[in-house]
Amino acid sequence: MEIKYEIYIAAKPEQVWNILVSKEESSKIFHGCGIESDFKVGSNYAYIGPGPSGDKTVHVEGKILEIVPNKILSMTLLVGSVYGEHYKNFESRTVYTLEPYGNSTRLKLVNDKIKEGDPSYERSADGGWARVLSSIKSLAETGKPLELPMGEG
Questions:
Q1: Averaged pLDDT, 6-33
Q2: Residue 121 is inside which H or E element, if any?
Q3: Which pTM was predicted?
Q4: I need a labelling partner for 88 at 20 to 30 A (CA). Which of 24, 57, 59, 116 fits?
């Protein structure tokens, strides 16, 4: 199974890229959970922030599969074990592709290699990724992410 989205953002690819890979910027779109990694192929990454295990809760983790600065970020995606051990069997892949589009950016997202029965699939397909991308767009264009209720996005 796979989920695909494409969005246009009135910002340069470098600005959108920074939102994806900066701990500080990514935490603005993920309720205070920022990405941590050295961003090398094969390296681990994690979105860490406030949650059930305190301020250092690992919400999502995985490995960097491909990285081309300002163009491609491909990584495995595994929901943190704090949400239940059943998630450890449901790794998928997320690929962000950024392309210049005039003075803007075309941001494509593919979340694929999703296994049948993955408990996070329905939430992701039912607007989860759309909310994340909309928040990236808002942050890049206005300097403010969307104010989404906790548990959304």
A1: 96
A2: helix 121-123
A3: 0.90
A4: 24
